[in-house]
Amino acid sequence: TLNPAYSGWERDLKDCADAGFRAIRLYPYYHDYALDGPEAAAVADAAREAGLPVSIPCRVVDVRQRHWMDVCHGAEPEAVLALAERHPGATFVLTEAIPGWPADSECWRRMRDLPFYVEMSRMTSVLGKNLQGALTALGPGRILFGTGFPFKAPSPAFLKIQVLDADDEAKAQITGKNAAQLFGG
User: Fold this and answer.
1) For a tag on the chain, would you pick the N or C end, based on fewer CB atoms within 10 A?
2) How far apart are CA 33 and CA 36, in angstroms?
3) Dihedral over Cα of 58, 62, 65, 67: its sign
4) CB burial class (10 A; 0-12, 13-18, 19+) of residue 32?
5) What secondary structure letter does DSSP report for 144?
6) Dihedral Cα 21, 59, 174, 40, nearest 10 deg
7) How far, in Å, CA of 168 to CA of 84, rounded?
């Protein structure tokens, strides 16, 4: 986790890359900077140069149960997508999101044109079919398995994959092959 609003973040990024880290994570709403601001731009460019994907969660906890002094919002998928478009050489991973766009949405098309991945821990497979929509819109090569652990129990994520309307190869991509390719494992 890096905070580009902190004066030593460039050194921290170099130390992370030198130590063999496979990605960085940003929390713009907790570190109090905007995704369309200079801090996010600088870290996106530096991460691209270091060859590290940038992971941005849309939420960490359900803000409906937040303490009155805690943040009251998260990152919007559209804002992360806009950041990715401004830094097309950088790779982005959107986590804890429910992009509720229809499969033919312009947002999905824009995402397909970039090195952009979505993690599935918050998406539904059955009722809202968010995961199925993402699979239809992006294909299995852009979806990453995620559980939300330790804030969520991991078993529902495995059930989502079981009931997903996809062939075994697509499920294998989602449950591990995509992450191995993206993170070099």
Assistant:
1) C
2) 9
3) negative
4) exposed
5) E
6) -50
7) 30
Q: Where are the beta strands (DSSP E) in the chain?
A: 24-25, 54-57, 92-95, 116-119, 143-144
Per-residue pLDDT of 52-95, as tens digits, reads: 999 999 887 666 776 777 666 678 999 999 999 999 899 999 99
Rounded Cα–Cα distance for residues 57 and 95 (Å): 4
At 115-134, the pLDDT tens digits run 999 999 998 888 888 999 99
Residues of the chain with pLDDT > 90, as a percent, come to 74
Single out the residue of 98, 73, 93 nearest to residue 81, CA to CA.
Answer: 93
Looking up tokens 């991945």 gives 117
Separation CA 144–CA 173 (nearest Å): 8
pTM of the model: 0.89
